[in-house]
């Protein structure tokens, strides 16, 4: 089924927009940590003009719902809601961690991806994902915010080699102590080019929300260490 979906993301240092029109994707992306508010709407205008469409021609609007920078996540959802309200579009929120897993699939055909975003405060936003036959991703480790040393302490060996993605791997040497086998990738940030592919899966399943119901994911409310083995 054809789809016209606009995706945007400002949850991390990367600022990105992608427009999916059937099988064609129009993209803009730039690492610009302090200029998201200046760059995101011009990027939206550029991809719409390149495709010869307006917001009213679209089927849905997707956004990176986090986790990530508190300010960045709020900027992204605020702008996305404004655009969706104006064009009366349904919305689809996509995890930034899952988006990086999709980026590793796009670049490396990776089927198992371990994602770690530097969350500051000596913690990472963490999640591990396994690709399913329908192109979706199963959460092997639930998304959480956690100290890297605690994560390594409670990790276990398994049979897979995990592609790594995100800024957390370089920021925290403690992650080198994780017990499962890993291999690197150049995927440091989520990108709307990957959000839009995941959003299409949700759109085909009817998994959308009205603009007023769109919500972010911060994870700071999750006390991850209480949920690890032996710490219930």
TrEMBL record:
Any GO CC annotation of this UniProt entry: cytosol
GO process annotations (BP): tRNA threonylcarbamoyladenosine modification
Every Gcp-like domain range: 30-152
Keyword match tRNA processing: yes
InterPro entries, alphabetized: ATPase_NBD (IPR043129), Gcp-like_dom (IPR000905), T6A_TsaB (IPR022496)
Pfam families: TsaD (PF00814)
Keyword annotations from UniProtKB, A to Z: Cytoplasm, tRNA processing
Predominant location category: cytoplasm
CDD domains: ASKHA_NBD_TsaB
Subcellular location: Cytoplasm
Keyword Cytoplasm: yes
Top-rank taxon, per record: Bacteria
SUPFAM superfamilies membership: Actin-like ATPase domain
Similarity comment: family membership: Belongs to the KAE1 / TsaD family. TsaB subfamily.
Name by which UniProt lists this protein: tRNA threonylcarbamoyladenosine biosynthesis protein TsaB
Organism: Vibrio hepatarius
């Amino acid at each position: 089924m054809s789809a016209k979906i606009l995706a945007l993301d400002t949850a991390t240092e990367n600022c990105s927009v992608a427009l999916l029109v059937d099988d064609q994707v129009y993209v803009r992306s730039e690492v610009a940590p302090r200029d998201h508010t200046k760059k995101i709407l011009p990027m939206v205008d550029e991809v719409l003009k390149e495709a010869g469409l307006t917001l009213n021609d679209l089927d849905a609007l997707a956004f990176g719902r986090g986790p990530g920078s508190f300010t960045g996540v709020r900027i992204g959802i605020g702008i996305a809601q404004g655009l969706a309200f104006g064009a009366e579009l349904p919305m689809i929120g996509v995890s930034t961690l899952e988006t990086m897993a999709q980026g590793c699939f796009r670049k490396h055909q990776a089927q198992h991806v371990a994602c770690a975003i530097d969350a500051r405060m000596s913690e990472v936003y963490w999640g591990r994902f396994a690709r399913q036959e329908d192109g979706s991703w199963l959460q092997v480790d639930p998304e959480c915010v956690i100290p890297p040393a605690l994560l390594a302490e409670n990790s276990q060996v398994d049979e897979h080699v995990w592609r790594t993605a995100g800024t957390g791997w370089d920021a925290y040497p403690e992650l080198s102590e994780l017990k499962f086998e890993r291999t690197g990738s150049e995927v440091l940030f989520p990108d709307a080019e990957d959000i839009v592919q995941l959003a299409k899966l949700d759109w085909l399943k009817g998994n959308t929300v009205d603009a007023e119901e769109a919500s972010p994911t911060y994870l700071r409310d999750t006390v991850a260490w209480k949920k690890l083995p032996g710490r219930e």
